[in-house]
Amino acid sequence: MALLEIENLIVEFQTASGPFRAVNGVSMKVHEGEVLAIVGESGSGKSVSMLAAMGLLPWTAKVTADKLTFNGRDLLGMSANERRKIVGKDIAMIFQEPIASLNPCFTVGFQIEEVLRIHMGLDKAGRRKRAIELFEAVGIPDPAERLGHYPHQMSGGQCQRVMIAIAIACNPKLLIADEPTTALDVTIQKQILDLLMRLQAEHKMGLIMITHNMGVVAETADRVVVQYKGRKMEEADVLTLFENPKSNYTRALLAALPDNATGDRLPTISELFVDEGAAQ
Amino acid sequence: MPRQHGAGFNMFRFLLGRLAVLIPTFVGVSIIAFSFIRLLPGDPVALLSGERVMSPERHAEISHALGFDRPIVVQYLDYLWGVLQGDFGTSIVTKKPVIDQFFELFPATVELSLCAILFAVILGIPAGVIAAIKRGSAVDQAMMGTALVGFSMPIFWWGLLLIMLVSGMLQWTPVSGRISLMYFFPPVTGFMLIDSLLSGQAGAFKSAVSHLILPTIVLGTIPLAVIARQTRSAMLEVLSEDYVRTARAKGLSTFRVVGVHALRNAMIPVVTTIGLQVGVMLAGAILTETIFSWPGIGKWMVDSVSRRDYAVIQGGLLVIAAVIMLVNLIVDLLYGLINPRIRH
Amino acid sequence: MSQAAATSTVSTDSSRRARLAEFWYYFSENRGAVIGLVFFVFLVLLAVFAPWVAPHDPVAQYRDAVLVPPVWQEGGRAGFLLGTDAVGRDMLSRLIYGTRFSLFVGVIVTTLSLVGGIALGVIAGYFRGWVDTVIMRVMDIILAFPSLLLALVLVAVLGPGLVNAMIAIALVFQPHFVRLTRAAVMSEKTRDYVVAAKVAGAGHGRLMFKTILPNCMAPLIVQATLSFSSAILDAAALGFLGMGAQPPTPEWGTMLAEAREFISSHWWVVTLPGIAILITVLAINLMGDGLRDALDPKLKRS
Description:
The complex is a heterotrimer.
Chain A: E1 4-15, E2 18-30, E3 35-39, H1 46-54, E4 61-64, E5 67-70, E6 73-74, H2 80-86, E7 91-94, H3 108-120, H4 124-137, H5 143-146, H6 156-168, E8 174-178, H7 186-203, E9 206-211, H8 214-220, E10 223-228, E11 231-237, H9 238-243, H10 248-255, H11 269-272
Parallel strand pairs in A: 3-9, 3-10, 7-8, 8-9
Antiparallel strand pairs in A: 1-2, 1-4, 1-5, 5-6, 10-11
Helix pairs in contact in A: 3-4, 3-6, 4-6, 6-7
Chain B: H1 7-39, H2 44-49, H3 56-66, H4 72-84, H5 98-133, H6 138-152, H7 155-169, H8 192-199, H9 204-239, H10 242-249, H11 254-292, H12 297-307, H13 310-338, H14 340-343
Chain C: H1 3-7, H2 13-29, H3 31-48, H4 50-53, H5 91-127, H6 129-143, H7 147-158, H8 162-189, H9 192-199, H10 204-212, H11 217-240, H12 252-259, H13 267-295
Helix pairs in contact in C: 2-13, 3-5, 3-13, 5-6, 5-8, 5-11, 5-13, 6-8, 7-8, 8-11, 11-12, 11-13, 12-13
């Protein structure tokens, strides 16, 4: 049984110019302990699908699917109360802008201990101890002191470590990382990715890595889903995808990488790929 | 990232910075108050003493007593020195020091203003939050529509209307004053609510409360409308921020997401608005106190203008301005306290 | 307001028309704003055509028709649709003529505040330094007083009357416009298009008023509508306190001052002028809200 199963997910937004389908019939499965990368351009709907699974979309979004289950439990039909028991505990998510993702009015210690109190029911001393443990696990120096700091006093990389610590605080079965390194310095990017992979291996978490960076895909993923304008273009294990891509879009994507350049000019995706299965 | 200094150090520097701005402002205000008498049409000596027809000797006598025969700069410095010692002039009508009259009447205005602000905050903030959460719904539109109407009303008319309906037709509340004439007790704090309780007289407290209801509603209507609108727009902005999404992703209840995470951030601009409303209050108090014959400094100033008690107008202006500057300073300090970005 | 349009010294007619069309699209989405606009136009027409629309002369006293109730009440007369006041003047005519004074106050005060506020704000924001400090200190001094109190005292100095009331109110509104303009100018000053214009040789005056100022107009327009409605309220307040328009001028606030004693007996003398003020100010505030939503790009997506 897969950890997360999605079948024919459709997400529609009410906009001023009529309904807009951000996700148009996407299906995928993630298993325990596996790393799935979802890759695509901006606007491909890769974040929206995961936000829909977590129940984090605004009220203007309509979510429908043939199947949307986590650990066998139906996420769509669940009541909001039941969903809140799972979200943040068994499924966790980290986002692209780490400093903006933390509340500027509270210390980082408050924000991590909050999760420990609500999901794990730890007492004050227990929370502090665990918070320090978690900070150490994600590589934050001077953890006890850092607990009293505010997000604006920390760098982007450190804030992302805090976010990761909050995410793994309750030992989740699945961690969704939405472009976790895009907003960070190149040198920090590698550290954060290494951290994520290490934690994933240690805790045998399922990890969904959303990214537009093929390099990240190559380094981290077991399997890959390629999305374009809300549709899934291809799904394969990582080696097959790079060596023998089946979809034209994937081929265009790979050809546009600087590493794959032949000749003088770098081709653009729109030159190489014509969208035949255009929007319904 | 380098370590930041503790909060205490910054607060002191902050105060100093604000004082550096306030002191020249206060000097400017005092210059205006000082010049006021001299800008009026007519002879300042006659205006200040209240004596219209005087013999030349009497005129010279008063002129000398008031210091008008000295160079203007010396007059100003004398005036400023007097002010710093608490001498704001003497009323032409009552012959009492302006500062004494001020302190007699100030508690009434403070009591009314505090009740009005409480009224505005207790109703306005939840209204704004609910309107933001239910954005676009009938509830939102009704609340914001009501706020807009409240914001567009002339408050002196609103007061008259309420008196007509509530005191006149329904006879639920009295028409004027702070307490029924039946009760008399010497003021202890100047706050009728407290004093009436302390007096121990039966029914005194109830009378004080019933006298406060309409004036509070009238004075508090505009701040209520402004606070509700501001809260709504601040909440809407905050609710679309990344950290609110993180809070939801942690599985927190809606109550906690909105009430703890969002509200704390939304309150930052709203507290500034509340602070600004205090100054608006004192302007609104002028009209409210006039309508309800509420014996506060607003009514005092209006009466002084119509009675041509120029000493009171001059002194009262300066005292009121000083009070407003002090209140703004306190509000700024509070703002610095709740916004960690300024504190650290 | 797009930067691209600002760099060209001659804005093409089509782009301005396009921007106006876009602005109107967003403005008209807001039903309240459109209602406000329609009502405001109605008021302007009433003010302009008052002598033809009003049934009576607003200051004419009909001694035999004192305190007549409105036509739908017992004792009402067809000649006086909304009744008469304490000296027999027709309420409806007075209310209609009152639109002239209120709109007049709004226009004059807003214009004075805008002109003064923009001039001072642009100078302060552009030159900074001691000029900025002096101007801002003076504004702080004005802000240290409660607005109505300052206006009241100013009118006491200048003498009661509508014109002096307008001057006093315009003075009290200055700091808001100055601060707004100054903040906008300071943030625009460092932008690339300003630097480009400077390098191209534009002098101070041209830079201040032709390059920077047009891009600061959005918040100023919103503040102007707010001032329009506040001016009407403040002028009415001063009239109510006896320091604004003097009787027999049919200004709505002054009408309320004379009406105070009739609260319990003759409701129309007290209620009707206040309603006139309320719906006028409400219409302008509705327009102001619509303007703000249409001009503020952040709020464009609902």
